[in-house]
Design brief:
This protein is mainly beta and about 475 residues long. The protein contains 6 helices and 21 strands.
Amino acid sequence: MIPSHLPFICVVTLATMMSSILSTPVHAARDVTQIHLEPGTGLWSLGMGFRNGIFPYVGKDDVDDLLPLITYNGETFFIDGTRTGFHLYQSSDWLIGAYASYRFAGFNEEDGIELDGMDRDDGVDGRFAITRHTDFGNFTLDYGHDISGASNGCDLDLRWGKLFVHGNYRIRPWIGITYEDQKLSNYYYGVNPEEATADRAAYQAKSALEMRYGIDMSYRVAQHHYLGFNMQYSELDSTKINSPIVIDNGQFSSFASYRYEFNDYQDNPYVNGSITKDLTMGEWYWRVAAGRHTETTFNKLVRFQEMFKPEERGTGLASVFVGKKIADNFMWLPLEAYVTGGYIRRFEKGLQDDFNEYVLGFKAYFSKFPWSDTIKTRIGLAEGVSYAAKVPFVEGEHVEAKNRSASKFLNYLDWSIDVSIGDVFKVPKLKECYFGWSVHHRSGIFASSDFFGNVNGGSNVNTLYVQCHSNVMGS
């Protein structure tokens, strides 16, 4: 729940540091996964990234994350790495935005026996940022407050950065300073009295002021293909260094990424531009589906083995998805690509309360079968992210059996096969309506991602669906 007011100390600190922004060359520290796209391009991209960082706590040396990478940068709405939000105002001199940002900071006892009995969650910040563009670089003021209920703390970042472009290379060095209030600093670096042991004294961290440095680099390999590599180093304040659970004086993190940008339609006004303008333009689809959990593995399902083996308690879901076409070809292959979002209602049959799930991803379809001129047939595969208000009961059972914590936020896959209803029943008006079978899959990418809670396991739901496409040109 978003707090109805901001803590007084954060507001006071914000006012104090804003008064010095013009005289102090400082930087808004941010997570290393940001891609820094230019606002207004209206282009989507899909990729993967590998995040590595020093683990400053006792117990283990570093932490790794394998992350799906989805980006979009319209005139108003954007998704950039682990941030999503809105450009509220932009001009040649200013950029003002509000967004939510994932905070990689948590740990638990699985990170080492030295942290036994301690558990700190990653957080989600609600943030507000103001950037001033100058010939000497960009100066940004970025305020954030935890909206996930993890720390309930706030921070304030100031940053200077300058972009250098040479051919297909983009390089952006930056430097800055970050203030964290006591709630935020103490949550991640303090030791509560009930967590104290003979080797770990109780400790209360104070507010912190820290310098950060970094460089972001990207290279355009070809029209659609981009490689990126970001690095940053954060000095730890003495209040954190003195904590009994800390062994390092700073944190280094890096992020190597690949993304495929859907830019074939760069000059088509019905594909790119503002997400609000596009609501009545281009090709869209809607899909309704329903089904039950299955004990069959995803690997078997994509090979059409043991397809209809329902979970005995009858738990399942119903869903509504919408999608928008963004490319006729993907990876030089005859695959039609769509960005898609879904609302899912999970039915738990009394095992726990029913709840909602939300999905964002990409879906690609192949339909070039020899018989598709007679009966159009498609195979589809989607990749994205899924957030569930609760962990599905069946999913929790699978994860607990492997002695790992479950996660509400997981990787999402969808595998489907369908046929044209219009072709089957010889009704031309229903040519672009399809009936099919799909697998709704959630998993933690084999425990390879701290972002997904290091979950090894997940769930599969067999569904039947109807999906219809329409091409609206707008006015």
